[in-house]
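Inverse folding, one chain.
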């Protein structure tokens, strides 16, 4: 009989149809946001799950779902997985790398520009009917072209942002990462490797694109913000928790950096009230990969991971090697 698969959120109907050709499918067309306990109940008799960042695979869930063999995440980041627990329980995890790289880099650059050039703040002013004349410094922001672009986390998305900055906007690109890029990649991105301290001190615009882990938790906190230029902008398209949002709200309030552009938040969908209060913060609801073609490609890749796995071909984009 066909493997039993649960799809945790409503997704593209063509992807559910595709999955239904291969599996006995339980889906969620009403898009109810199940609790973890409800998820565990529904998963108890399933062999695999198509999952999103809305839910976690953790020890409690694994204990309740002994049949589970694979969790296919529709995201490149998988901090919603307890990977060690999954590996120990013999559960394959997969993610969606590559298909979202350029789209997410586009958004990182858009957020950088919107933040530096004060686009949402000025739009609110216009819509509020406050625009009554020219003023020499009205919404004068920070320069983008020719400035120094700092990138923390130089994976595929970071490299995409570096190429946009270097080739499209004549920026000096500096980066910090756990490991240095190969020389030919550094040359292609026109990116110079620096220490984290130098990155903080020299960047006019600092973009965060590193994966979330215990190690990257609060990689940007009060001490790091204090090292940045008072004119600098900070952009986070990585994960909530990489920035200490309370410390960021305080730094913005005290004018210790100029502005921030944030697509991800600690404890999202809740947003720190100190960030909501500030006009020099551009806020978006975790949409960096959200174009129709890219979201479709992500869903297709997550589905193909399930199909390949149960065909015995092995997962296409695994994040672990589960114990047998
Ligand atoms: C989105 O945040 C992703 O990890 O794909
Ligand atoms: C992370 O996986 C990235 O693509 O940057």
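Residues assigned per position:
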């Amino acid at each position: 009989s066909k493997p039993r698969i649960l799809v945790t959120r409503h997704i593209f109907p063509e992807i559910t149809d595709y999955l239904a050709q291969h599996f006995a499918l339980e889906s969620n067309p009403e898009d109810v946001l199940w609790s973890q306990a409800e998820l565990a109940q529904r998963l108890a008799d399933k062999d695999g799950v198509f999952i999103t960042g809305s839910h976690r695979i953790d020890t409690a869930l694994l204990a309740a779902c002994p049949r589970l063999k694979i969790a296919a995440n529709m995201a490149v980041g998988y901090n919603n997985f307890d990977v060690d627990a999954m590996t120990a329980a013999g559960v394959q995890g997969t993610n969606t790398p590559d298909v979202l790289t350029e789209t997410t880099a586009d958004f990182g650059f858009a957020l950088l520009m919107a933040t530096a050039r004060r686009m949402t703040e000025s739009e609110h002013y216009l819509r509020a009917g406050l625009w009554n004349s020219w003023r020499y410094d009205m919404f004068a922001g920070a320069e983008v072209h020719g400035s120094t672009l700092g990138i923390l986390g130089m994976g595929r998305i970071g490299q995409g942002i570096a190429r946009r900055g270097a080739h499209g906007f004549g920026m000096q690109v500096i980066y910090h990462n756990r490991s240095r890029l190969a020389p030919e990649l550094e040359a292609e991105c026109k990116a110079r490797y620096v220490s984290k301290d130098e990155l903080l001190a020299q960047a006019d615009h600092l973009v965060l694109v590193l994966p979330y882990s215990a190690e990257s938790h609060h990689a940007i906190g009060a001490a790091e913000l204090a090292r940045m230029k008072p004119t600098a902008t900070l952009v986070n398209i990585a994960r909530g928790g990489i920035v200490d949002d309370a410390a960021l709200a305080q730094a913005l309030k005290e004018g210790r950096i100029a502005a921030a552009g944030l697509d991800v938040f600690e404890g999202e969908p809740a947003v720190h009230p100190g960030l909501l209060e500030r006009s020099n913060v551009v806020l978006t609801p975790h949409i960096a990969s959200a174009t129709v073609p890219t979201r479709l490609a992500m869903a297709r890749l997550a589905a193909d991971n399930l199909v390949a796995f149960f065909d015995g071909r092995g997962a296409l984009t695994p994040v672990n090697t589960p114990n047998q």
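The chain has two domains: 4-99+292-310, 101-283. The radius of gyration is 21 Å.
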